[in-house]
Amino acid sequence: MDIGRHLPLTHLSFLILMALQEKPRHGYSIIKTVGKLSQDRLSPGTGTFYSALHRMQDEALLAECPAPEGSKGDSRRRYYELTDLGEAVLQAEAQRLDSLLVEARRRKILTEGRT
Amino acid sequence: MNKSAPRLHWLLRLGLRSLPRRMERDEIGQTLALREADARREGRSLLVFRLRECADLLRTALHWRLRPRRGRRKPNSPPRRGRPWTGLSNDLRYAWRTLLRRPLWTASAAATLTLGLGATVSIFSAVEAVLLSPLPYPQAERLVHLREVSYDGNTRSVAWLNFQDWKRNAQSFSQMAAYSSWGVNLQTPQGAQRLSTGLVSRDFLDTLGVKPLRGRLPSPLEYQRGAAPVAVISHGLWMRQWGGDNAVLGREIDLADLQNSGAGVEIVGILPPQVAFPSASTELWIPLAQLMPQEDLEDRGSHPGIRVLGRLDEGVSLEAARQELDAIALQLAERYPESNKGTGIFTVPLRDHLVGDAGQTVLILALAAGLVLLIACANVAGLLVARGAARQREFSLRTALGAGRWPLLRLLLTEGFALALLGGAAGLALAWLGIGLIRTQVAPQAGIFGLEDVTLDPGVVLFALAASLVSGLLFSLTPLTFARRASLRSGLETDSRSASGGTLLRRVLVTGEVALSLTLLLGAGWLVVTLQQLLSADPGFQTRNVLTAEVDLSGPQHGFAQEATRQFYEDLTARLEALPQVQEAAAVNPLPLSGYGRQWSLTVPGNSRLETGEKLRTDLFIVQGDYFKALSIPLRSGRLFSGQDDPQSPRVVVIDETLARRVFDGDPLGRLIQFGDNQFRVIGVVGHVKPYGVDALSRPQAYVSAGQRSFPAMRLVVKTTGDPLEMAATVRQAVLQQDKTQLVHRIRSLEDYRQSGASQRKLAAGLLGIFAITALVLAVVGLYGVLSYEVARRRREMGVRLSLGASRSNILGLILKDGLKVTLAGLTLGLAAGLPLSRLLSGLLFNVTPYHPGYIVSTAALLLFTALLACLAPALRATRTDPVRSLRCE
Asked: Testing the interface with A: which of B8, B35, B48, B52 to mutate, by most A Cβ within 10 A?
């Protein structure tokens, strides 16, 4: 598994992976979660969003999965989940961002408590 | 789109449609609907939302269509590297294999294109050579040919004095010159040679704009009578006779005909090879005054075969020149009413004069060839449409497997391209053969100016290739339109039942083909009938078993003596008549059908139907021996010439029945007529003949005896018992026995003259016939294709009908009716379009009524019959349908 090849992730990709880390979701749900995770700062166009989704599918970061039991709504909706690679890439990206933040704090660019 | 999917705003639908199929549009559509609902709930502007989303979708679509794809490569689909043209060579190879996989289909499509292209390119090249390529003279569009025209519309050659007046008065022309075509004998160590010669006035070569290749043009002084004789020779003669030796300049040659020759004629210049005027065979140009008899140049009433060539002044239109010439003609008519009353000046651009009627023939043939190309293209289109419909399943499958629109488009285009290339190459090869044939076989016989220069014209080739490419490419795309119309699933499930795409289009195409071929058949039919009429019409004399040859005694060795000439021909005809295979031998000038004529104006002393002072133009023939018997011209009353009609006896004349009726009230025998100052007594009346061909105007005719008025150049007319051409050597021998130095040329049968008079129509009828048959075959093949396809498509329906109790004859009738409908529609259209076209042909027709219902009905019946034959095979196939099998195979 060549994780480094996928790094760094784009902002949108990172948020998509993060949204799916919790549970499998369908497209609309991913978009809503992405919006929430970015405090509504990121609201991708539907085309852009699906384009990213497909690309990440091609890169095997995520995969389609059967609808989870008990899910409401249209049973024909497509659900996506993280693959093992996706999981690993998400972690690697988070670590990469974290080490960047550590460095930023060490250099007093960022003070404790501020996000 | 999924049926349960919510209706989206058109902006969003547009964006969604633009996405590649492999992005799940349904899924995206649903998400879009949900987000739109969110926006509405949150009170955001829907317009802004939709515009933003649409733009985003379009951008995404562009990104995905141009994006290189990884991983999901399908077998048999070319590798994609993100450029629209990648995989082209793969497509080409694949297209080639596809074409080869169905050799019969490919062969018929390619052969159709080949026929269409071959015919069009060769004929259009001929058009280019005859009508469009420039004459080989500088600013040739300013060159104009001039003749005199009488009030009845007949044109004639120009009187020398009239030419002088035109030249002096016409301001519209920067230059004007006179010329006349003659033949002279060149004496060489190897024997005499007959040279086609242009007698030309002073400015002739300047007017033409010709510069000598070597040497110089004659100086103005050398154009005067009595000057030392000089000549300019053609490049061809220079090469043939002197091997291109420069030393020929200044050399003296021996031309027997020159009246004041004693000294030879000096060659002063050599013209470049492209100069072919007055005719393509002209090899020698001599100042006019050297050869033209003085008395012909001094008489305004004499028309000694002079034509006039003018060069319009810069910026002067032909119309303006015509107006000026009309005024000049009027002035001359007032000043010289005797000779010029009712005489106008006829002008025509030199190119039109040279091309003549042939231009029309060539244009009609070009039109016909164009129609054949059109039919061929329609047929190829039909074949492609049928195949496209048959491949609908294949394309649905390709689409289902993820093939995008562009690769499919490219595949189809490549196939169409390969087909067009195949047909185009074969068509060009055919055209190349056809042009070779035109140059070597047709041109020498047809006598159409410029035709011998025909070459494969790059412009024409490009045009034809473009036509085939367009028809190949355009209609090769039809499967794609079906693929869009039919949904993916139905395309995959489809069988012959629903593969109906293109049927209507093909019917329309075939209807058009039938219409076009009817048009061509009608035209060809008219021309064939014309040809029959021409060759069967009676010219008033017999052409069978008659050998003709030219003998020319003009020249100093015969001393131009009337008596010697008379004696020569008398002895010669007697010698020929003594030969066992010869029935009659005679001599005449001019020879009917040879294209030459001599007109004289006659008056009648005493009472006649002519008004006082009126002169009647007649064709005058000088005859020697049993001319009337040799050509079977019937004697109506009186007697023919006899040995007693010699120079010492009173002058006598034989006239034809037309002249007799036109001039005399009662019995013409014994009456007097007058040519110039000489009076002749009418001794006999003979039948009227058509000396310029059965379809040309003929004038009243008069014959005088060579015994009383001899002429040096005569045509021998020998009636033989067998094939006249077998006698050629014998006749030549007889002439040489009479005079060792004499030259016999133009040995041809009279029938040959008659046939060549119809040569242009023969050419037109032959080619148009070929085109019409090609068109018929193509249309019938097209019809057959449509019906065969229809039968295959409706096999299941036939099965159901048969199992429900329909009889075989019901089925037969059903299919025949189908074919008949298309054919009848085509016939109706063809009649509507074809009949007006007949007006185009009217100049070529002779004794034919284009609207004659008989021709039209029989031509249409021929087409209908052939079409029914084409329908029969598929219809019979339909009746043989096995209901059980056809139902089971679904």
From this structure: B35
| Candidate from B2, B60, B72 with C-beta closest to A47 | B60
CA B684 to chain CA centroid, nearest Å? 45
Do A47 and B27 lie within an 8 Å CB cutoff? no
What is the percent of chain B with per-residue pLDDT over 70, rounded to a whole number?
Answer: 88
Kindly report the backbone phi and psi dihedral angles of residue B286, in degrees, each rounded to the nearest multiple of 5, phi listed first: -130, 140
**Strands A79-82 and A62-65, bridge-based pairing:** antiparallel
B583/B390 Cα distance (integer angstroms): 74
pLDDT of residue B138: 85
> CB–CB of A76 and B2 under 8 A?
yes
**What whole-number distance in Å separates Cα of residue B384 and Cα of residue B506?**
10
Put the strands of the sheet holding A62-65 in their side by side order: A25-26, A79-82, A62-65
Type of residue numbered B183:
G
**Cross-chain CB nearest to A47 (options B2, B30, B59):** B59
pLDDT in tens, B524-547: 777 777 777 777 778 888 888 899
On chain B, the residues whose CB falls within 8 A of the CB of A74 are: 30
> B274-333: per-residue pLDDT in tens?
888 887 788 889 888 877 777 778 878 777 778 899 999 988 888 999 999 999 999 998
Of B35, B58, B59, the CB nearest to A31: B35
Per residue in B665-686, pLDDT (tens digit) is 888 888 888 887 788 999 999 9
Tens of pLDDT, residues B637-658: 999 888 888 888 889 999 999 8
By a Cβ cutoff of 8 Å, what residues of chain A touch chain B? 27-28, 31, 45-51, 54, 58, 74, 76-78
Report residue B348 CA to chain centroid gap.
20
Q: What is the pLDDT of residue B889?
A: 59
Task: Find the range with the poorest average confidence among B517-521, B763-767, B772-776.
Answer: B763-767
Chain A residues in contact with B29 (beta carbon < 8 A): none
- Where does the pLDDT of residue B703 fall: very low under 50, low under 70, confident under 90, or very high at 90 and above? very high
> How far is Cα B290 from Cα B230, in angstroms, rounded to an integer?
9
State which residue of chain B sits closest to A32, comparing Cα positions. B35
C-beta of residue B523 within 8 angstroms of C-beta of residue B841: yes
- How far apart are the CA of B786 and the nearest CA of chain A, in angstroms? 45
